[in-house]
Amino acid sequence: MAAAAQFVAHYYTTFDADRANLAGLYRENSMLTFESSQAMGVKSISEKLVGLPFQKVKHEASAVEAQPTPNDGILILVTGHLMVDEEQRPLGYSQAFQLYKDPAGQWFVYNDIFKLIFA
Amino acid sequence: MAAAAQFVAHYYTTFDADRANLAGLYRENSMLTFESSQAMGVKSISEKLVGLPFQKVKHEASAVEAQPTPNDGILILVTGHLMVDEEQRPLGYSQAFQLYKDPAGQWFVYNDIFKLIFA
User: Which domain holds residue A38?
Assistant: First the structure.
């Protein structure tokens, strides 16, 4: 699904450039689970993402799969790797997003579950 | 969420014992994406799962995270390992499920996206 691929590219480009700008992709009823820590709503999710303990990060999504969900949503499962700061060894991760369109027709993240994967 | 943990335990126990019995967890509008191959509906999903090219399989879900979704659904992200047949090396995987209740009040799988992870 083109919308899924576009969203994923946009999400990680924004995350890696300046993650404060991810706030625009969430709404008041959005949920984030980041490594078992939970946040809800734009402010709380943005604070969580901005406050993550690294400066530089680079995501590489190696696989993106998507399915339609009820009420015209999209479920996306991403698996990939990321590198933080000066660390040379990539970390595996998996992330599930459920997107919906807001009344203005813009896709936003309703569900976001992120998990690092240790081999 | 208790329903998520119970579902995941039941799903993999059933998968590893006799995956033909997974059919009861899907409905006619259910979708499966298994390693980029897609199936929809009980019959097609069950045929895909039963026809996978291994006899024995053992899943171990090392992390299960869940969030509520619109219309009383549940989104689950599982990361874990599995071993097939006589293979000694576990394979990493990630799987996203979205569950809904059917009119009889039984949870079923609406979305199912499975992906092997190669380190």
Answer: 2-117
CATH number of the domain within which A15 lies: 3.10.450.50
Using the beta-carbon criterion (under 8 Å), do A75 and B96 form an inter-chain contact? Answer: yes
**Which of helix, strand or coil describes residue B84?**
strand
How many domains does the structure of chain A reveal? 1
User: ipTM of the predicted structure?
Assistant: 0.96
Integer-rounded Cα radius of gyration of chain A: 14
List the one residue out of A115, A106, A114 whose CA is nearest residue A25. A106
Mark yes or no for CB contact B113/A67 under 8 Å: yes
CA distance B63 to A115: 8
Q: Which residues in chain A touch residue B96, judged by CB atoms under 8 angstroms apart?
A: 75, 77, 96
**Per residue of chain B (119 residues), what is the pLDDT tens digit?**
789 999 999 999 999 999 999 999 999 999 999 998 999 999 999 999 999 999 999 999 999 999 999 999 999 999 999 999 999 899 999 999 999 999 999 999 999 999 999 86
